[in-house]
Amino acid sequence: MSDPQAQSAAPRDSEIAQSDLVLGDASQSLPRHEEQTQSQPETAPSSSTETPASLPPTCSNCTTPITSEKSKPCPRCHTTLYCSRDCLKADFKKHKKGCAELAQKYAENADVKMATTRVPPRDSRRGGLQKWQFDT
User: Fold this and answer.
1) Number of other CB atoms surrounding residue 123 within 10 Å
2) What is the C-alpha separation between 31 and 106, in angstroms, rounded?
3) Which residues belong to any copy of the MYND-type domain (predicted)?
4) CA dihedral defined by 115, 97, 62, 47, rounded to 10 degrees?
5) Which of 39, 57, 106, 116 is most deeply packed, by most CB within 10 A?
6) Where are the domains of the chain?
């Protein structure tokens, strides 16, 4: 009669041999996959398509392209451009929701110099000595 341990060891040995084959195949196919990914060139975006940065700015209301001379930024936030004062008025109901936040960011980042309303004090010696000051 045959030994029961030998019979149970034989199937286990064949399972191990099969798992080694599977692992061996996988370990050999892994470098090939790396070679395939390295050999494939990365596709760069085509230069013929225009990016949003290269497009001319458009009016936020009527979306017509505007030139830098004719562009009128929002007087509060300075980020939204319009082609005319009429477009600014027409779009302001939609724009004013985000305008306050954008205006606050603009004020923090922009170097804005406010005009003073205070008149400088008059200096009495400003014009030099007067003739009457020598007669004393």
Assistant:
1) 7
2) 53
3) 59-99
4) 90
5) 106
6) 72-109
